[in-house]
Amino acid sequence: MNRFVDLADFPREQVKDLLGLAARLQQHPQPQALAGKVLGLLFLNPSLRTLASFQSAMMRLGGTAVVITPGQGTWQLETRSGAVMNGAAAEHVREAVPVLASYCDALGVRMFAEGRDLAADLAERDFRMMASLCDKPLINMESAVGHPCQALADWHTMDEIGVPERGKFVLSWVHHPRGLPLAVPASTVHMAAMRGMEVVVLRPEGFALPEPIMEKARQAAAASGGSVSETTDRAAALAGAHIIYAKEWCSTEHYGDVEADARLRAHLSDWCVQESWFSAADPHCRLMHCLPVRRNVAVADHVLDGPRSIVIREAFNRMVVQMAVLYRLLRG
Based on the domain organization, do 177 and 76 belong to the same domain? Predict the structure, then answer.
């Protein structure tokens, strides 16, 4: 393994092996496993959990992390091909990424979707360009339509609390003041399908996940014995659910049109997870969310602070699974 960019790059058995390694490292730490190794972390977008969890994971394995946030103590970076660089950006990623990679043993890159051209974002055009510049082991710390580290942590969390592999997993759209990227919902629906679950995408009209994302999840489900469906019927979707995974995303019907997206979501404030959402779910149904979350907009306080919520455990498990990813990339 020399890149961790998409769970779909690995067979299910290899993902489960990685999860097994994560559990072993959690129980039996190896504080010198990556002694002398350096991890470069390039953040073109904000972060809290991804930044802190990768730094902590590397340090717990005995290595060091170097963090670069363009424009904050370093030059602003240009990412556009063919750009005439007469603006704020002083350096292009075509020089910056190879230089940074040369100082490190592995490189993580966080680069969100531009949010203007759906086809370009689905094709991961920008992240693929960045990846082509790196000759070291590479980690996707969130791209246009991928967040494999979050997905791996979510799988590990469900394993930890005993969620059945054939259980019902509901990925539900929830409210947010503005449209957010598709990376987490895309990776989440694929992860749950790959795990073998009955996956239901619950969302309002206008927020259907793009067909390439759904087809990728259906293929994973076919291989694992799971299933994938999509609905606007909240009651039917939530009935018997073992997991309600709340997540915000943009209107795919109006992708790139901020005003149209805002008009569509303006009347959807009832898409805030309340305890009533769990009334017909499995008695042990849990709430998951990748964080950050808008309290009382996406999820009500009493749910986030109640016994159903496992969002803090999810966040902790980012560090756990990333230790396994780093170990495999740098130790084999």
Answer: no
How remote is the C-alpha of 121 from its chain's centroid? 15
In this structure, the answer to whether residues 84 and 62 fall within a common structural domain is yes
Rounded to whole angstroms, the Cα distance separating 217 from 199 reads 9
CATH of the domain at 123: 3.40.50.1370
d(CA 208, CA 241): 20
pLDDT in tens, 142-165: 999 999 999 999 999 999 999 999
Q: Which residues pair with 43 in a beta bridge?
A: 110
Q: Which long-range contacts (CB under 8 A, 24 or more apart) does 75-83 make?
A: 77/44, 79/44, 79/111, 79/126, 79/129, 79/130, 81/129
Name the pairing type of β-strands 243-247 and 286-288.
Answer: parallel
The reply to whether 21 and 165 lie within a common domain is no
Full domain range(s) for residue 163? 150-314
Q: pTM value?
A: 0.97
Residues 6+ apart with CB under 8 A from 164: 242
